[in-house]
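We both want to read discrete structure tokens more fluently, so let's practise on a single case. Once you have written the record down, we can walk along the chain together.
***
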Amino acid sequence: MIVGSLGVLAFLLLIACGLGVRFSRWLGVSCSSKLGSCTSAIGVSPKRLFAWAGIIALGATVLFFPLGLFMESPPSPDVAALPTSMPISMPHKSFLPVVVKNLLPSPAARSFITREKHENILTIATFASLIGVCSIVAWLVVSSETSGTQLWQQISGAIRYVADKRHPLVVILTLYVLITSLYSLITPSFESPDEGGHFDYMVFIARRHCLPTVQDHNHISDLPIVLHPPLYYSLGALVLSALHPFGVPQYQFDLHADPRFWERWKDNWLIHGSEEVFPYHGNTRMDHLLRLIFVAMGALTVLFTYRTATVAFPQNESLAVGAAAVCAFVPQFTFISGMLNNDNLAAMLSSMAIFCLVRILKEASIGSRQLVKLSLIAALGLLTKYTTFFLIPVALVAILLKSKDAKQALKLSFLFLLVVGVVAGWYYYSNVLLYGDPLASKTHLSIDLAVHHKSLTDPFFREIYFPAMYKSFVGNFGCLSIPLPTGMYYAFSLPGLAGGVGLLRLVFSPKAREKSLSTCQKYVVLILLLSIGLLVVGSVMYNLSYNGTQGRYLFPILPALGILVALGLSAFARKARCQKLLWSFLICSMLLLNLFSLFWHLLPAYHPFRPQGMRADLGGVITLIGYELDKTHVEPGDNLKLILFWQGQQKIDRDYTVFTHLLDAHDRIWGQKDSQPLDGTYPTTRWQVGEVVEDVYEIPVRPQALAGTYQLEVGMYFLATMERLNIMDEEGHVLDNRILLTQVQVLR
């Protein structure tokens, strides 16, 4: 089994390496020459380096995989509980593309590694990898017969060689990845738009090897998500399956909404607990891990923005640096790139498609290979999100511009549409069979709560749509509940306005005619403007039926915006030195504003958690899911404001009383407030099953209280008998009859 698993792994790695080489050549980078130049600085050939890396990786794999054989095997996942077939009315949902489905682990592979010890195996694998890296360094020292100091000089020289070639881009990408990772780690799980539904979609595919439908509403927390194309979620399912060779557990979106969120529309909308503190557990761990893995999509978007600008305007490399910076340091793009969201893959594929379009426009004639590449990327975009549909008419316009005559234009357009239809058409045809139309718009209208029909003259567009779209495009974190200060929106609008003025000046100013754009570059500007216009118009048309005022829907055209803004700004600085100063100032300004948004707005909104999540089962009928305490330091005679969040698990036939006590080390009470929920106005017998009740208490601290550490305890009892509800664990065992929340310091 081990040999077979390693064989499959080696085969997949070979495919990945081959694709990586082809991909790098596509970008215009020669892997062999670059690698040879870098490795020559440290005295080793690329082949030997790869050979030793492969041997060490194989040794590490053989080291930690057999450890699973000596671990106690728990019961396998309850596969029998999963449905074995789908209704006949769902033809396409019972199959996934063959390649993707066959890559998911088999039942035998799932039982190979035990669930409880999987984290230990990953830890061992990590240390084995570190040992492998150290072994390579040690081998280099021995084989090259050089001292450690000389070796470090050689390695640092190789690093400088790579950095000097793309120094500004390396800095931008490094800063982008670091800041995006911080956004990902600071933001609690599922505190970004639709993230819970995205996560559920991935888990559904990973567990059932098929796509969900609207009939699977019990498994997807945000039902309209099931109508999204499946590519992004299939990639997430592959990652989940790779991280769980034994079988993906039934992760569930089990966080509770803060009942006050819809009233205040501020900060977090979920109640978060101690399991969401690093290193995380359960859903939270998987969510954060998937977030960090998919940060690469945003980085590739920035990279292709840079490459597109260098191909379109090769005489001005600083313009490409500025375009990459504009794309990378928009706060909302950085924030969304660190979350689970299919907009990230849509933006990446759109940037790749725009790059292909520019290359086609720059060449004398359209090659079939280039057209097929563009077709494949556009098809993948259509399998990711509907916001990439603008690529189809834009590509057809580019084909028309570069065709010699109408016959060639028709031939190439047919080829383009044929490839797109073959790759992506199956999903849209299945939507016709399932829902009656390719986009499932009728079904979307029937299940989406944000449906609101309106006309173009509706005040909604003037008063809500355009302001909300701009603010959420620049920065409105969380579930659009953490906006930036008004001044920052004005600050971020300045480069865009200046770039627009500069672009107009570059096109229409008589002084600019001497250095006017070439015909090919004018075509590029036209394609970029057409992309922006089509997606904006599509967004407006979408809002005729829905309230979808989220700027992330426009991220597929962010590369086009970045390039046009950079081109317009470059019109104000003709000299190379002036352009470097301009881009340095712009990059530093956007970077500082981004960091300000991260540390002065996002971080205080979420940390510490407000309220503090927990889970305490009271007699199997009521659960305490969270609490919020206004302060942990108090003086005698003051009041503590405590908010408790209860949830009824079943119909309650008794009116229970809540007790809140402030206890010293000897369990003597120095502060107390007992009452039925909501000061007696909402007894527990009136609670609905699953309802979350926000219960507020003002606990007076006795004036005689001495300085020291006190414990805050809560619970419930039945007043007629004074019998308390027992606190129970998941297996039904009694733990206590009170809940110890936190410590409070009394000061004098």
